Amino acid sequence: MRKLFLPIALMALVLVGCAREDTPEAALEDIKASIEQCNYDQFESRADVRRLLNAAYDDANGELAFRVSDLRTAYPDDPFFRNSSEEIILYNELHRDEHMKFVDAAVEECFDRTLVPPADFDDDTIKATAAELRHYYATAQSTVKDIKVDADGLRAEVRLEAKVESLYAGGSHTLPIALTFEKAEERWRLVEIKNVGELIMPLVDIAEVLWSNQ
Predict the structure, then answer these.
(1) What is the pTM of this model?
(2) Distances (CA, A) of 159 to 68, 82, 175
(3) DSSP alpha helices (H): ranges in the chain?
(4) 3-class SS at 184?
(5) CB-CB contact of 158 with 178 (8 Å)
(6) Are 170 and 44 in contact (CB under 8 A)?
(7) CB-based contacts of 78: which residues, under 8 Å, 6+ apart?
(8) What are the tens digits of pLDDT across the range 128-165?
(9) What burial class does residue 74 get, using C-beta atoms within 10 Å of its C-beta: 0-12 exposed, 13-18 middle, 19+ buried?
(10) Taking residues 107-112, what's their average pLDDT?
(11) Shortest CA distance to 186 belongs to which of 46, 22, 2, 53?
C-alpha cells in the first residue's frame, strides 16, 4: 500500500503560488518557500500535516478498493491487486500504523537539506521516496487552473495541473490536483487533497514502474 499511497499523501509538495496577501494563493506561495528552504515549521504553519496525511490515506484506501478490478486488469502481475476490495481495506487498516510511520519518516527526509538520493530506489526506500518527491517539486511545471472560495469565505478549492518528472521511474507525468484550504484566525491552511480518485491511476502507473525496476 505505501508504494501507492505515499505519492498521493505527499502530493502537496508539487505546488506553486504567486500572491502576497493572505489568500489561498498566498498559502501556496508559503508552502513553496518552505519546501525550497527545507523549513518544516513554515510548511506546517500552512498545512495541517496530520489531517492531510490521514485523509489521503483513507481516501487512497477506499479508491484502491473501489478500482481493484481495473487495477487487476492493468497490472496482472501485481499480487496486491489479486485481493478483493474487502481484503485491501482490511489489510491497509491492519498496517496503518506501519505505513504512517514510513510516511512520517519520508516527510522528515523531504525537509532534510543533506538528503542524498540513493542510487537505486530499493537501497533505502524512505530516502528514495523523499528524493522522488523532492524531484517532483524541482521539476514541476504547475499551473493554477481555478480557485473557488465558499460563500462564507472559510473554505476554498484550488485546482492545479502539474507536470512532473520521476527520478527513479523516468518519464514525465501530468497530474490534476485539487486541494482544499480552510481559513481560521485569518490564515489559510491546506487540509485535504480533494481528488485522490483522479490521481490513483497515474500514480499507480509510476509506482508500478518503480517496483518493477527493483
Answers:
(1) 0.85
(2) 26, 33, 11
(3) 2-9, 24-36, 40-46, 49-66, 68-74, 85-94, 96-110, 125-139, 196-212
(4) strand
(5) yes
(6) no
(7) 71, 208, 211
(8) 999 998 888 888 888 889 999 999 999 999 999 989 88
(9) middle
(10) 93
(11) 22
Collect all residues with Cβ–Cβ distance below 8 Å to 91 and sequence separation of at least 6. 1, 83
Q: Which three cell numbers stand for residue 69?
A: 478490478
| β-pair partners for 181 | 156, 190
Domain spans of the chain, in order of start: 2-212
| Dihedral (Cα; 134, 135, 136, 139), 10-degree rounding | 130
- How far apart CA 185 and CA 120 sit, in angstroms, is 45
Per the CB < 8 A criterion, the answer to whether 102 and 126 are in contact is: yes
Largest CA distance in the chain: 50
Residue 34 in grid coordinates: 518552505
Q: What number of other Cβ atoms are within 10 A of residue 52's Cβ? A: 21
Task: Confirm if 162 and 137 have CB atoms less than 8 A apart.
Answer: no
